[in-house]
Each structure stands twice: as structure tokens, then as C-alpha cells.
């Protein structure tokens, strides 16, 4: 019996010491005592590429155990779950990933998250592209919800073997020269279709529409469905209309394989080589590799995106208030979003860093991707990253985007003509925004 | 023995003279103990049934953003908006449409199956168990497999249609086709279950009725329609009620039938979005409007109550009175 209290005392002392070391002056919120190692749950979607980093972190912090949930799930499954956990006040991980399109909705209720500015995050500002940092701040600038992980610089991924079959150039610079503009891209697509390879030119009009929209908005207005005063401008923003019209041209020319993006058919179409190009934000490379599988290694390559740059996607990591291990979670967030963490994730699954230091790092600038025929992904995605123009997203962005993309889909499937589709897009978007 | 005594219902003994009060206690025991014995069910029902119902109703009277901290009271506004919401009525038509084209063939097929199983087959138990196997599989697994079978380009159904020279069908974005595909899923799962229930009822029909019919010159088909089916009526109605309850709440099959972005819509034009899916779409992603979703839930509840009432009326008219089931019940 004499041993027990002493051992317990030692445990408490150890826990207190680690807590002191880890929290580095933060007030707390962590009422957990010292029950051995702390388990941190990290909630993600898609491919964040953190496995190796967790190992590293756990090796350096023997008192922390990391469990990840959600790799491979798509955003539509992930985000409702996260919202439910936040609303219920329990269930969420200690670290959660938030995609840029949903960030605004979560920022509207900042009370759900720890204010990272209270935990020394302000010093990290220089580690992020300015707009990425600002995206994590609430409207009044007083609370930082999350630290940035990646940005979604856009390129165009294509199948070399299918291009060869169609008698098109296969080398990436030559392919980039095929399509300085989206109209050139359509013209190339028409040549591809005329060659009758048995594959379509692109996967689905919705993905392409979103790419064109974010690119056009980034280059012109700086916002898409909502203007910066959160007014719905789906029918008055020329960027939306322009992206719509270009997409309708693509559909009219019969270039789309109509594989609804992220569906089972879409995945099968990757496996069966059913389309030749796909609009490719940096994080998409990991998705392609996962869907097309190892047999397609070396058949894919990456060229420049038609038009001029653009950003699609990218996430932040946040710590929910409900977490019982806030201090440890904040440390983990800082580690994962550090330049080193972002480089590690990029090497594993391709998400493009949002840290200027990481972008300048030889590990990024010199990086190539063996799956994509050794394409120099570091320069392809990284070169334009610092000049990326962010697109502002309003409060109901996700719901509105869903309506507009579905309208694109109905035209693509021949259920609506482009005129009816546009009317649907506008009326349904307005309805969704009012809900 | 002491253990036995302790097992009495937890009635607080009166303070002081216990011996005096034992008479009162036993009277109390006989009068109130039965309620205590059945209390656990009602307590659980109150916690898991009544409370959520009431709370949902309370929520439906508010503008309740799932993540928001303020939930202003809006009265019946959610309901008035909902009644004017075309997507709500669209989902209602989908639900009823899928319900009809799944239930009618399902019950007919179950009747036919039960009739087959009722004959002197070899390995009878094996056959009877076999028809129940689909019911044991997980709904989600069934829905995913059927979702692939009914794929537009890589689906086996369209491949078979192509083999016989028919055009491919857009199973997921053609309203009627998606209803048929989802009904096929529902029927695959539930036909065997209903067949077994009907079979049990068939076996309770006295043999002498058939003998009498045979003597009167009725052939097998005539016996089936004039003896078997009328006597099965109450059971058929029971099956219909069960199918109604399931059919109006249909969720997993149509939800898992669609994959990709926002499958909760049930297709780009909401081709096969049922009421429960519409409820989910509003209460959770992408709208997170808990109040509106709760209003959908309550209207669905009202709808089920109406359909159930119609069922009861039909039951009274067809199966009521001194029917054959009543005699068999005891």
C-alpha cells in the first residue's frame, strides 16, 4: 500500500510537468489529470497525408497518442458529422479539419472553437500566406479559428496514353501549349473526341465548372456566389455567368463523360481509363492516385490549367472548445501546420503548402511525383501559389454551390437545356440561401 | 426468503409503526404495483419516444440554426413555409410513388411465393429459410450493391439491357426509373419476410375447406382465389400496414443508392428524394436548419398518422367482426 500513493504522486508530478511544458503559459481548460498518455483524435477528410507526421510527433512526445479518423471520406460525409458534433457539444476530435468553403459557416459561430490567438498563434502569422492567415480570422479579427494547412493551386491532370491514342502531344509543356484559354481547351477536346478513343475528354462538367468559376472570380471580382458584404450575387456576378457559359460550351461539345464527381461511377471511370483530363487542384493528385490505382502509375501527367491560375480548396485545422486536451491539441495543430508539417503532408499526398517558407523550401521546389510520370509538382503547383488570388466565400456558400452544380449536372445529363438550367441555378440558389 | 421480500416494488415504508401499516401497505401493493411493473416500458417510452417528439415540435417552432446560439421563436412560420415548398411536395410524391410501386408487387409476389412454399416441396425448411435470407443482409450493403448494379455506364442492369438490344436507362436521374430501382431493392429485402408471414397464415386454414371446395369442383386456382385469399385478408392487411410504416420512412435505400456529391438530394432534380431525406437535407447538410427539418419531421408524422388511420378504417371494414383470425387467436 505504501507504494501506491508514491507512484501516484509521481504520476501527478509527471503530468503536471508535461502539462506545464506543453501548455507554455496557457490558462487551461484541460481538467484531465495524469492518466497516462493523452489520446488526441484528429478528424480529417480526403487525403491530408499526416500518417508519417503523427509517427514523428508521437516519437517526440511519448505522452501523446494520435488517432486519426476520416481519411478517404468525402467532404459531404465529413462536414455534416462535424457540425452535429459541434452542435451536440461532444463527439468531435481534438483537432478538426475545416475546408475553406465551410469555414465561413463555422466562423459565424466562433464560440465552438478555441481562439488560437490566446495560445500564442499570433507569432505564427509570418508562417502563412497572408490571405490564408486572414481566412482563419473571424470578421472582427479578434478570434483565430484555425491555422492553414494547404492551398489548392490548380493545374490540369491528363492521361498520356489516351492523348497518344488520340494523336495529341503527350509531353507536358507541349500539352500546356495546347490550351492557353478554355476555348482552346474545348478545341483540343473536340480533336480528342473526333479520334474516338472510347474515352471522354473530361470527367464531369461540375468539377470543371467549379475550377473555371474560382479561377475567373479570383482574377476578376474576388468573390463568387456572395459579394464581400455577404449579399447573394449568383445572378449578377459576371464571373459566375462567364464560368457557366464556358461550361455550357464544354457540355455542348460533348466533352464530358458525365461521371458525377465523387460517385462510385466516377471512381470506376478512373479505374477503367474512361476520361483523359481532369481539373486538378494540388490536393486532387492524391485523390487520382487513390482512385486510379497503382496500375495507372506513369500514365498520368500534369499540365498547366487553361486560363490563368486559380485556387480551389485548402483547409484549416481547428481545435473545438469541447476538446478535453486543448493544450496538447493546439501544439499538434501548430506542428502539423508548420512549414515542416506542410512539407511532410505534401510529400505524402500532395496538398500544396500555405506557408511561404515551405513553398520556398527545396523539398517543395524540387519535388516531383513519380505517379504522374515524374512531373515537377513542386514548380507546377508551387510557382503560382504565392500569387494566388483568394476568392471570398459567403455564409451559405456550400448550399448555394450545391444548387448551381446540380443545375450544371442537369444540363450535362440532358435533363435541362442551358437556359432552363440557368434559371434553375438562380432560383434554387436564392431559395437555398434563404433557408 | 429475505431476498424475495426485498424484491418487492420500492414502496417507501411509512415512518414509525410498521406493523400497523402493513394492511394499508398490502392494499397499496395490490392497487399500484401493477403500474409499477409496467412502468419501465412507459418510462423508456417517455424518454425515448415522447420527449423527442415534444422536443422536435418545440424546435420546429423556432428559427433554429444547428450551430447558432440564438434560436428565436417564429411560431408556425416553418410550417407555412413548408406547405408552400415545392420540394417538400415533390419529396412527398416520390415517397408515395416508391411506396406504391414497391408494396403492390411485393405483396403479390409474397402471396405467390407463400403459395408455392405451402405445397409439398422437397427440403421445405431449406426453401423457407432461403426466402428470408435477403432480409438478414444489411440494408446499406444491399443499397450499395444495387446502386452499382443500376449504374449508368458500368452497371450490370444496363449491360443486360444492352445485350438484348435495349437502350441504357438513366436509373439515377430518371424519376420513374429510380423509383423502380429503389422499389426493386425494397422488394428484394422484404418479399421473403412477407411470404413467411402469409405462409404461416395459410397453414392455419383448415384443410376441410379445401376438401369441400374440391368436392364442389373447384380447381387449384379457384381454390386459391376463393378460399385462400379471402381467409388471408387480415394477414394481408397486417403486411400492408407494416409495409406502409416502412415505406413512408424509406431512407437508407434511396440515400445509399446515390453516391458522389450531395447524395441526400436523391439525384440532380431530386428524382428519388424521399421525405426522410428531405428532412435530413434541411436539418443537417447543407442547410443546418434544425427548425425547418423538425417541421418536416412533424408533417411526416402527421402523414403517417393519416395513413395509419386509413389503414385502421380499411381493417375494420374488411377484417373486423367475428373473422377467422379472432377464433384462432386464443
Please summarize what this structure is.
The complex is a heterodimer of chains A (435) and B (330). Chain A has 435 residues and is of the alpha/beta class.
Task: Enumerate the spans of chain B where pLDDT stays under 50 for 5 or more consecutive residues.
Answer: 1-7, 320-330
What is the CATH C level class of the largest domain in chain A, in words? Alpha Beta
**Strand portion of chain B:** under 5%
Structural class of chain A: alpha/beta
The name of the CATH topology of the largest domain in chain B is MetI-like fold
Describe this structure in words.
The complex is a heterodimer of chains A (about 425) and B (about 325). Chain A is α/β, with parallel strands linked by helices. Chain A folds into two domains: about 5-150 and about 315-365, D-Maltodextrin-Binding Protein, domain 2 (3-Layer(aba) Sandwich), CATH 3.40.190; about 155-315 and about 375-435, D-Maltodextrin-Binding Protein, domain 2, CATH 3.40.190.10. Helices cover about 45% and strands about 10% of the residues of chain A. In chain A, strands 2-1-3-10-4 form a five-stranded mixed beta sheet. In chain A, strands 7-8-6-9 form a four-stranded mixed beta sheet. Chain A is globular. By secondary structure, chain B is mostly helical. Chain B folds into two domains: about 1-60, no CATH class; about 85-330, MetI-like (MetI-like fold), CATH 1.10.3720. Helix content of chain B is about 70%, strand content about 0%. Chain B is built from 14 helices and no strands. Chain B has helices spanning about 1-5, 20-60, 75-85, 85-115, 125-135, 140-150, 155-165, 175-205, 205-215, 220-250, 250-255, 275-285, 290-320, 325-330. Chain B is flat. Chain B starts with a helix and ends with a helix. Residues about 1-5 and about 320-330 of chain B have low confidence and may be disordered. Chains A and B meet through α3, α11 and α18 of A and loops of B.
Amino acid at each position: 500500500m505504501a507504494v501506491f500513493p508514491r507512484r501516484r504522486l509521481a504520476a501527478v508530478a509527471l503530468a503536471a510537468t508535461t502539462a506545464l511544458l506543453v501548455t507554455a503559459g496557457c490558462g487551461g481548460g484541460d481538467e484531465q489529470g495524469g492518466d497516462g498518455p493523452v489520446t488526441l483524435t484528429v478528424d480529417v477528410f480526403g487525403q491530408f497525408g499526416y500518417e508519417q507526421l503523427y509517427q514523428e510527433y508521437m516519437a517526440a512526445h511519448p505522452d501523446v497518442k494520435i488517432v486519426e479518423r476520416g481519411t478517404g471520406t468525402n467532404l459531404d460525409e465529413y462536414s455534416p458529422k462535424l457540425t452535429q458534433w459541434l452542435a451536440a457539444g461532444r463527439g468531435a476530435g481534438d483537432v478538426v479539419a475545416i475546408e475553406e468553403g465551410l469555414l465561413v459557416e463555422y466562423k459565424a459561430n466562433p464560440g465552438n472553437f478555441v481562439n488560437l490567438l490566446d495560445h500564442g498563434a499570433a507569432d505564427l502569422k509570418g508562417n502563412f500566406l497572408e490571405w490564408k492567415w486572414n481566412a482563419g480570422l473571424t470578421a472582427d479579427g479578434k478570434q483565430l479559428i484555425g491555422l492553414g494547412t494547404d492551398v489548392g493551386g490548380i493545374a490540369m491532370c491528363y492521361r498520356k496514353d489516351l492523348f497518344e491514342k488520340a494523336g495529341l502531344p503527350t509531353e507536358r509543356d507541349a500539352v500546356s501549349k495546347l490550351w492557353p484559354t478554355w476555348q482552346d481547351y474545348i478545341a483540343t477536346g473536340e480533336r480528342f473526341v473526333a479520334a474516338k478513343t472510347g474515352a471522354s475528354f473530361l470527367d464531369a462538367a461540375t468539377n470543371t465548372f467549379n475550377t473555371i468559376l474560382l479561377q475567373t472570380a479570383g482574377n476578376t471580382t474576388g468573390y463568387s456566389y456572395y459579394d464581400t458584404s455577404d449579399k447573394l450575387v449568383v445572378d449578377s456576378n459576371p464571373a459566375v455567368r462567364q464560368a457557366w457559359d464556358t461550361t455550357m460550351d464544354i457540355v455542348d461539345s460533348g466533352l464530358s463523360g458525365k461521371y458525377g464527381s465523387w460517385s462510385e461511377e466516377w471512381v470506376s471511370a478512373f479505374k477503367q481509363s474512361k476520361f483523359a483530363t481532369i481539373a486538378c487542384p494540388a490536393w486532387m493528385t492524391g485523390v487520382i492516385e487513390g482512385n486510379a490505382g497503382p496500375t495507372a502509375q506513369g500514365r498520368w501527367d500534369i499540365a498547366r490549367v487553361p486560363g490563368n491560375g486559380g485556387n480551389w480548396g485548402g483547409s484549416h485545422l481547428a481545435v473545438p472548445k469541447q476538446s478535453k486536451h486543448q493544450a496538447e491539441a493546439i501544439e499538434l495543430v501548430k506542428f502539423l501546420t508548420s512549414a515542416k508539417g506542410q512539407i511532410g503532408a505534401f510529400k505524402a499526398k500532395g496538398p500544396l503548402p500555405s506557408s511561404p517558407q515551405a513553398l520556398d523550401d527545396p523539398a517543395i521546389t524540387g519535388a516531383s511525383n513519380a505517379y504522374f510520370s515524374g512531373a515537377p509538382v513542386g514548380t507546377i503547383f508551387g510557382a503560382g501559389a504565392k500569387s494566388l488570388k483568394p476568392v471570398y466565400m459567403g455564409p451559405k456558400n456550400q448550399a448555394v454551390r450545391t444548387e448551381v452544380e446540380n443545375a450544371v449536372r442537369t444540363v450535362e445529363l440532358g435533363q435541362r437545356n442551358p437556359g432552363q438550367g440557368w434559371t434553375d441555378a438562380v432560383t434554387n440558389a436564392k431559395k437555398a440561401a434563404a433557408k | 426468503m429475505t431476498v424475495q421480500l426485498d424484491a418487492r416494488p420500492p414502496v417507501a415504508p411509512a415512518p414509525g409503526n410498521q406493523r400497523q401499516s402493513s394492511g394499508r401497505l398490502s392494499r397499496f401493493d395490490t392497487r399500484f404495483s401493477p403500474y409499477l411493473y409496467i412502468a419501465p416500458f412507459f418510462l423508456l417510452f417517455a424518454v425515448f419516444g415522447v420527449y423527442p417528439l415534444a422536443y422536435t415540435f418545440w424546435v420546429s417552432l423556432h428559427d433554429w440554426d444547428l450551430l447558432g446560439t440564438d434560436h428565436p421563436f417564429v411560431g408556425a412560420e416553418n410550417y407555412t413555409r413548408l406547405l408552400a415548398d415545392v420540394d417538400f411536395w415533390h419529396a412527398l410524391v416520390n415517397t408515395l410513388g416508391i411506396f406504391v410501386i414497391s408494396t403492390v408487387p411485393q405483396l403479390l409476389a409474397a402471396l405467390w411465393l407463400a403459395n408455392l412454399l405451402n405445397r409439398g416441396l422437397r427440403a421445405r425448411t431449406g426453401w423457407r429459410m432461403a426466402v428470408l435470407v435477403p432480409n438478414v443482409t444489411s440494408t446499406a450493403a444491399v443499397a450499395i450493391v444495387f446502386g452499382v448494379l443500376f449504374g449508368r455506364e458500368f452497371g450490370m442492369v444496363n449491360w443486360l439491357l444492352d445485350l438484348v438490344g435495349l437502350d441504357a436507362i438513366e436509373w439515377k436521374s430518371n424519376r420513374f426509373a429510380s423509383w423502380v430501382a429503389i422499389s426493386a431493392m425494397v422488394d428484394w429485402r422484404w418479399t421473403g419476410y412477407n411470404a413467411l408471414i402469409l405462409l404461416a397464415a395459410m397453414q392455419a386454414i383448415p384443410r376441410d375447406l379445401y376438401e369441400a371446395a374440391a368436392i364442389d369442383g373447384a380447381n387449384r386456382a379457384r381454390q386459391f382465389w376463393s378460399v385462400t385469399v379471402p381467409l388471408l385478408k387480415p394477414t394481408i392487411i397486417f403486411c400492408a400496414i407494416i409495409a406502409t410504416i416502412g415505406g413512408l420512412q424509406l431512407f437508407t435505400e434511396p440515400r445509399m443508392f446515390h453516391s458522389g456529391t450531395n447524395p441526400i438530394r436523391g439525384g440532380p432534380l431530386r428524382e428519388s428524394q424521399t421525405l426522410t431525406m428531405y428532412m435530413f437535407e434541411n436539418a443537417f447538410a447543407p442547410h443546418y436548419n434544425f427548425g425547418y427539418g423538425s417541421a418536416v419531421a412533424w408533417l411526416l408524422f402527421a402523414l403517417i398518422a393519416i395513413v395509419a388511420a386509413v389503414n385502421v378504417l380499411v381493417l375494420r371494414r374488411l377484417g373486423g367482426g367475428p373473422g377467422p383470425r379472432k377464433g384462432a387467436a386464443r
